[in-house]
Structure formats: C-alpha cells, structure tokens
Specification:
The complex is a heterotrimer of chains A (267), B (263) and C (254). Chain A has helices at residues 51-59, 97-108, 112-125, 141-154, 171-188, 199-205, 233-238, 240-265; strands spanning 7-20, 23-36, 40-44, 65-70, 73-74, 82-85, 159-163, 191-195, 208-212, 219-224. Chain A has 267 residues and is of the alpha/beta class. Chain A has a domain at 1-81 and 160-169 and 191-251: Rossmann fold, CATH 3.40.50. The relative contact order of chain A is 0.17. Chain C contains ten helices and no strands. The radius of gyration of chain C is 22 Å and the shape is elongated. The chains are: A alpha/beta (267), B mainly alpha (263), C mainly alpha (254).
C-alpha cells in the first residue's frame, strides 16, 4: 500500500497575543506543526500553555501572526472543512437534538430526503434513537457531547478539531466516548487534531502526540505512537508498550508543568 | 420575578394556612373597624360596600368600558415599545455608529421618570388614547433596549464559532444564532415592562384624564366616592396578577428550552 | 465626555428642525429658548425651591422604604412562618401599580407631603424586600459552613455572612427603588399636590409657557441621571469586589 504522506494541516510560525487586564499576553510563540492526512494528532501540555488557542487559530476563529495552510491554501476564517467540538458542547439550546444535527445540513441546501437520511444515520451512530425531539437541557453530559459530535460529522468535514471534548464528563463516560471517537476515526480516517490534558487519553487515541511548552506555547517534543488498536481497551491500557509511551509523555508534560510553576512563582 | 418570591397561589402543594390566615385577618379587621366606625366611613368603607360598588360598576358596564380602554392603551404601548426596543437594541449591538449615537440618549432616558414627560405628550398628541399609548411605548422602550443590547452582546462565542464552522454566514449567524440566544433575556425584560406599561397608563389617565381606569379613579377620589376608589384599586390589583400569571405561563410554554426560566 | 457628543448633535438637529419651521414653535420650543428658561428658573429660585421639595419627598420615602424593605426581606428569609404570613401581601403589592394608591392616600392624608412620601415608601418597599430576600437566600451554604468552621458565633453569622453576601442584591434593589422614588414623587405631585417639580411642570403646561415646561422636565432628567450615577459610584466603591456592582450598560466593551 502506497503510504499517503500529504500534509493536511501546515502550521507555520503562529504567534498569538491577546489583551488582558494586566496588559498583553503572549499565548503562542512561533508555533510550528504539520499534520498529515488521516493522522490523529493530540496536543498535550500544562494548563494555560495555549493549546486551545492554537486549536482556535487552526479553526479560523482567532486571528494570529504566522500561517495556517490547509491543503496547500492559507485559511481565511472558519469553514466547513474544519469541524469543531468544544468541551462545553455548545449545542444550540433552542434547537432539538434533530435540529442541532440538521443545522449544518441546512446551510448546504440538500434536498430534505437526503438530509433526513444523514441525520437518521448519525443519530443511530451516536446511539440516541428516540431522543430526536429532546432539547439539550434534557440530556446528560455524555449525550450532549454525542450530539455535538454528530452535528460536526453531519457536514462531513475533512478535519476534526476537538478541544478537550471529554473534559466535562465523568471517568466512565469519558472512556466510552473515547472508544466511540476511536471507532469513528478508524472508520472514516479523517484528520484529527485533539487538544487534551489527559495523557492516557492522548496515548489511547492518537498516532502522534505533541507536547507543548508552558506559556508562551511552542511544540517542544513529539512522540510517535504505534500501537495495535485492534486490541480491546483492557488489554491495551494494561500492556507494557502502552504504559512505556504513556510514562514518557507524562514525564515530558510534567517537566513543562513544573517549568510553568516556576514561571508563575517568579514576581 | 425574583426566584423564591412568587405571587400567591404558586405554593399549591400544601394549603398555605398562614397566608390565608393573614389575608383573612386583614379583611376581618377592615370590615370590623369600618362597621364599628372606628375609622370614618370615608376613609375605609366596609368591604361589603366595596364589593357592592364593584358589582354595580360591572353591571352597568362602566368598569368594562374603563378596563377595556386602559388595557387597550397599555397593550398597544407595550407592543410598540417592545418591538421598537428590540429592534433598536439589536441595531445598537450590531452597529457601532448607531450605538455611539444612541448611547447617551438611552443612558439619559433610562433613569429618568418618564411620567415627567406626560405634559409634552399631551401637548403633542392630545388627551385621548394616542398620547397615552405613545407615552407607554416611551416608558417601556428603554429597559427593552438595554436588555436586548446586553443579551445580543453576551451571546456565548462558542455558539457563534460552532455555527461558523457549520457554514453560517453573517446574516444566518444573526437570524439563527444571536436572535434565538437572546429570546429568554428579551422575554424577561418584557416581563418587567408589563407592569411599567400598566403603571404608566393608569398614571397618565390620572393626570390627564381622557377616560380609562385612572381617570375614573381620580374623579371618584375628588368626589369622595371611596367605595369606587377601593373597588377600582382592587380591579387593578387583579389585572396585575392575571397578567403576570399569563406572561409566566407563556414563558413556560414557549421558552421551555431555556436552561433556567427567565435566565 | 466624548460620549456626550451625540447629545450636541441631537440639540443641533432639534434647533434646525424648529428654526426651519418644520415643526411649529408652539409645540417644540427651540433649545435656545429652553436654555434661557432654564437659567431663569435657577436664578429666580423657582426650580430650586420645588426641586428641594420633590427630592425631600422622594428621599424620605426611599430611606424609610429601603430600611423597612431590607428588614422585612431579611425576616422573610430567616423565618418560614413570617414568610408565610407576609407573602400574600408582598406578592399582591407586586402586581398593584403603586400610583393607583395615590388617590387613596389623597383621600386619607390630603394633598401634600404625606401622600407623596407614603406613595414613594410603598413603591420602594417591594424591590428592597425582594432583592434582600434573594440575596440572603442565595448565600452559598459553603460560605456559611466555612464561617462556622472558622468559629463565627451564631448571631454574627447573620451580619457577617448572610447580609454581606446580600449587599450586591440590596444595592441593585436600591437602584430600582431610586428610580421608583422619582416616578412616584412626581406622579403624586402631578395628581395631588400644590408644589414640587411635578406640579411645576404641570402648571407650566397648563399656562402654555412651554419653554419653561421643557426646561423643568430637562432639569428632572438631569437630576435623575446624576442621582443614578451617584448611586452607581457609591456602589462600586463599596462593592468593588462583586461584579454585579457594575451595571451591564457601563461595562467597557472588550
């Protein structure tokens, strides 16, 4: 099989300063990162290092210095090629589950029959059949996140951007959602950029992990993760190769977190 | 309405004995002191007289006529003020120039007692309904503008970003995200505007005449017809209660998706 | 101060509209005439006298109403029994347009200060009760428990935790009550009084001296504006630690 090594996302020298009460804050400094097509890349790092900011820049929601090139062309703003899922779900509270998922499809002006088919399939995929007419207010955290993912998938974006998507969920639900996400990725082979503070999650899901330094953020280290993901979770997570990688990544993040701590301790 | 303090009748789960007792007690004291002539009949007519007058006014249609007139004015003014206020609030949130222009006018208008403007409205629009309707609209528009403006500017950016990455353009963002997100807050502001509308109508009628509940109320006072005074006040109280309950019901029904009622 | 520039534009448009004859001078005196009347009123002492009366009535009613309102609201939060007895009365007066009671008070107290103050008092009572109640009852339990665990005596918990936590809400209520105090004082004056700025405005209207009428109204608007601003400033000073001290409209845009 000829390996496809097309660069999907090319982040070059991205710097971002934002204004705060105490003056300008440099969130990212000259960050570089490339993501190949079909890769699952996780960005980990200490709190406040700017990993979410980087994701928002790639999503086109924030302006920054430097360049973000997708499929050879620089981005000009948000687009349906980059689907986003937030930690806080961001479901439109005034729309039902069905209508939330339908939102993106409406923009595409597909014939109703086709849209309905897509929505039905997705609702089946996320396992929420029967909940189509509920409002987000009536759903649990895990259910809301599934709807958020389905809403993003409805537009069939080539790239998935996920900002700590399972951070607000309890541990058990988080694991179930990770399994779901992995399954979806294995099926669709989209390019995924995941931001998370959970190192175990990163190792479980991705084939490459980037560790970001303390603020101002830069990619400091990268780890390739070559694990056989056909194995069930129980085997995988307890295996030696999994834990070797996990420990290395954890150590790297820990070093960055300590550096950040020292930084904050200084006047 | 602030949570926790609701109109009577909400605690239907258990019979509110103490509340009933307190109201009953008041009525009894009232009736007794009036009958025993502890207080001049002029000041505190017996409850029975008030009820009697209420019945008579209803029977001969004066109450209905006055009520219809006043409520018609209040609702028209409210509708006008709310619609105009929402539009202006959204415009201000969207367009910096309009915001800059309108800001001092709204800042001045909001704390000022709109009642002071009654003579201007009478001068321009006469003493019939038009001046009252416009005054009510004028009184309601300021809180609605401010509430709408604040709601539009504080829409969660994650909603906007999600919609953008799902393909929404500028107009779609406005119509499909910003506007629906504002509904709960706009509605809360409207709920506040309702009693403002009523008060303004009644007061304008009391000051300027021209028919309506307020006008009859002040005439009764001038001619010392105290049962009518009391009767009309009770009707106004009833109207206020009914309207508030109706508005809350509407909110529960149409805005049931909001995280918190009145959020 | 740059924020006031649109007002200058507004006055300019106003002047233009009248001078060009678009609107009859009878109905809308030009800003120049109003300004002259304004100055005359101040030097003549007419406004000062009446303004003082109005402010006295509004202020007295506000102070008494606020004090009683806070006490009642706090008691309602403290004692379920008290709340049950008082609830129907509080809930009832919420729906009643307070100015409807002015004729009743005129019947009882005649034309003058007492009627106006009574009306203001009643109008200010409710927002203070509701807001105090809300402030006290939404005190997070964890705050109370922390205070108790740190050795605060029972009686002190009330003043040091509950009431302090309720302060922002109380000041919000005060701001609302301030607005009401002006409305009710002026309403009462227009309906049942022989003096006060409400009565003055009304009289100028009846006499047809519209430039003076506009001047008096402008005076009321300005006074109300600065009273509101003043309260906001005091609130911000005292309650700088709480974000509700800053009204939404004042928050500088990000």
């Amino acid at each position: 099989m000829r390996p496809k090594v097309d660069i999907k996302i090319d982040i070059r020298g991205v710097s971002k300063t934002y204004a705060s009460e105490r003056g300008p804050v440099l969130a990212l400094r000259g960050t570089d990162l490339t993501v190949n097509e079909g890769e699952f890349v996780s960005i980990v790092g200490p709190s406040g290092c700017g990993k979410s900011t980087l994701l928002y820049v790639v999503g086109g929601f924030l302006e920054a210095d430097g360049q973000v090139i997708i499929d050879g062309a620089p981005i000009t703003g948000p687009g349906t090629d980059r689907g986003i899922v937030f930690q806080e779900y961001a479901l439109f509270p005034w729309l039902t589950v069905h209508d939330n998922i339908a939102y993106g499809l409406e923009r595409q002006r597909l014939p109703a029959i086709e849209s309905e088919k897509i929505i039905d399939r997705l609702i089946g995929v996320i396992g929420l059949a029967g909940f189509e007419n509920r409002f987000p207010r009536e759903l649990s955290g895990g259910m809301k996140q599934r709807v958020a993912i389905a809403r993003t998938l409805a537009c069939d974006p080539a790239i998935l951007l996920l900002d700590e998507p399972f951070g607000a969920l309890d541990a058990q639900t988080r694991e179930i959602m990770q399994d779901e996400l992995l399954r979806i990725w294995l099926e669709t082979r989209k390019t995924v950029l995941l931001v998370t503070h959970d190192v175990t999650e990163a190792v479980f899901l991705s084939n490459r992990i980037c560790v970001m330094s303390a603020r101002p953020g830069q990619i400091i280290e990268e780890f390739a993760v070559a694990l056989d993901r056909e194995r069930p979770r129980e085997e995988l997570v307890l295996s030696e190769d999994f834990n070797t990688i996990r420990n290395e990544v954890w150590l790297s993040v820990r070093r960055q977190a300590l550096a950040a701590g020292q930084q904050n301790a200084e006047p | 309405m602030i949570q926790g303090v609701s109109a009577p009748g909400r605690d239907a789960a258990r019979v509110p004995w103490r509340s009933v007792a307190s109201v009953a007690g008041l009525l009894i004291v009232w009736e007794a002191s009036a009958r025993a002539h502890l207080t001049p009949v002029l000041f505190l007519p017996p409850v029975s007289d008030v009820v009697d007058q209420l019945w008579r006014s209803t029977a001969d249609g004066t109450l209905a006529r006055d009520l219809f007139l006043s409520l018609g004015r209040a609702f028209s003014g409210l509708a006008l003020g709310t619609v105009a206020g929402v539009m202006l609030g959204l415009l201000m949130a969207r367009n910096r120039v309009i915001e800059w222009l309108a800001d001092p006018l709204v800042a001045l208008g909001f704390p000022s007692p709109k009642i002071a403007f009654i003579p201007i409205f009478i001068l321009w629009f006469g003493i019939a309904s038009l001046s009252k309707i416009l005054l009510v609209a004028f009184a309601c528009i300021f809180p609605v503008i401010i509430g709408t403006y604040n709601a539009a500017r504080s829409v969660n950016r994650l909603f906007l970003w999600s919609a953008m990455s799902l393909g929404s353009g500028r107009t779609s963002l406005f119509a499909h995200v910003i506007l629906p997100a504002c509904y709960p807050r706009i509605f809360t502001t409207f709920r506040i505007a309702v009693p403002v509308g009523l008060i303004t109508t009644f007061t304008a009628e009391m000051v300027a005449g021209g028919g309506g509940m307020g006008a009859t109320l002040i005439y009764s006072q001038r001619f010392f017809e105290s049962p009518t005074v009391f009767a009309y006040i009770l009707v106004m109280l009833g109207v206020g209660l009914v309207l508030d309950a109706a508005v809350r019901k509407f909110q529960r029904h149409f805005l049931n998706w909001a995280e918190e009622a009145g959020a | 101060m740059g924020r006031a520039v649109p007002l200058v534009l507004f006055a300019a448009v106003w002047q233009l509209v009248v001078s060009s004859g678009l609107i009859n001078r009878e109905f809308l005196p030009p800003p120049t005439a109003v300004a002259v009347a304004f100055a005359d009123l101040f030097t003549g002492g007419d406004i000062a006298k009446n303004l003082f009366v109005t402010l006295f009535r509004a202020g007295a009613g506000l102070l008494i109403g606020a004090a009683c309102g806070v006490w009642i609201g706090a008691m309602m939060a403290r004692s379920q029994h008290f709340k049950d007895y008082v609830m129907p009365i509080v809930g009832g007066t919420y729906s009643l347009p307070k100015s409807a009671l002015i004729p009743l008070f005129a019947l009882w107290f005649g034309i003058g200060n007492v009627t106006a103050i009574a009306a203001v008092f009643l109008a200010c009572l409710l927002p203070m009760i509701v807001n105090t109640y809300h402030g006290v009852t939404t005190t997070p339990k964890v705050l109370v428990w922390s205070a108790q665990a740190l050795g605060t005596a029972r009686r002190e918990v009330w003043s040091r935790v509950y009431l302090r936590n309720a302060l922002p809400d109380i000041f919000t209520g005060l701001r609302i009550a301030l607005g009401f105090s002006f409305v009710l004082a002026i309403s009462a004056e227009m309906i049942a009084s022989t003096n006060g700025i409400g009565k003055l405005i009304f009289m100028y209207g009846e006499n047809g001296t519209y430039d003076y009428m506009f001047a008096a109204i402008a005076c009321v608007v300005v006074v109300a504006f600065f009273a509101d601003r003043g309260l906001l400033l005091v609130t911000r000073r005292l309650l700088g630690w709480h974000e509700s001290a800053v009204a939404d409209h004042e928050r500088r845009r990000a």
